[in-house]
Amino acid sequence: QVQLVESGGGLVQAGGSLRLSCTASGLIFSIYTMGWYRQAPGKQRELVAGIGSGGRINYADSVKGRFTISRDNAKNTVYLQMNSLKPEDTAVYYCNGRRDWVEYWGQGTQVTVSS
Question: Dihedral of the CA atoms 80, 83, 86, 91 (nearest 10)?
Answer without folding.
Answer: 10
